Amino acid sequence: MLTKLEGLLEEIRKLQDRVTEEVSREAGEFGYSIRQGRVSFEQEVARRHRQMATRLRSYLAQSSLLAILTAPVIYSLILPLTLLDLFVSLYQAICFRVYRIPRVRRSDYVVVDRHHLQYLNLVERMNCLYCGYGNGVLAYAVEVAARTEQYWCPIKHARNPAAPHSYYFRFLPYGDAEHYASELERLRKEVRDQ
Length: 194
Fold this sequence. Notes:
By secondary structure, the chain is mainly alpha-helical. It has one domain. It contains seven helices and two strands; from the N terminus they run H-E-E-H-H-H-H-H-H. It has helices spanning 4-29, 43-52, 56-62, 65-75, 78-99, 122-152, 177-192, and strands at 32-35, 38-41. The longest helix is centred in the C-terminal third of the chain and has 31 residues, at 122-152. The chain starts with a helix and ends with a helix.
């Protein structure tokens, strides 16, 4: 019998599946398909997209001074993001193998494809490339950290975090000293078996 929390988590998983299905339906609506991992637009749709792109000169002329002044600060994060990407990949390549934790597929999290959209100009494409990479690396790092946390310290916090990762609700209650030792190996096995 499922506990109340397990039942709620199952409902959430089913809702996420429905959301994924609905997003997949949009492909037909907007005239694209995905074949062998590559996005392809119908010819007429691609032609209209190219016509709709804002010319670079117009885009820059319409940009605010603040956007231009803050761009170097925004893009400076590429250095720590790249280092995070490198170190997280190295960390899991070594440590996850040692502890037999399944490695996170980076490509499932770092999805970079919006820069191919023909209705975006060069600056918009660069912005999309940057944001896709940055958010992907952060999501990838969260997944690696979440698996690490379930393996080493699967205990909920006394104060709930604002955006807990997907493993968090499986963790042991804060202050449950009686079950910690007996449940730790089960939770480690759970993360190994995924």
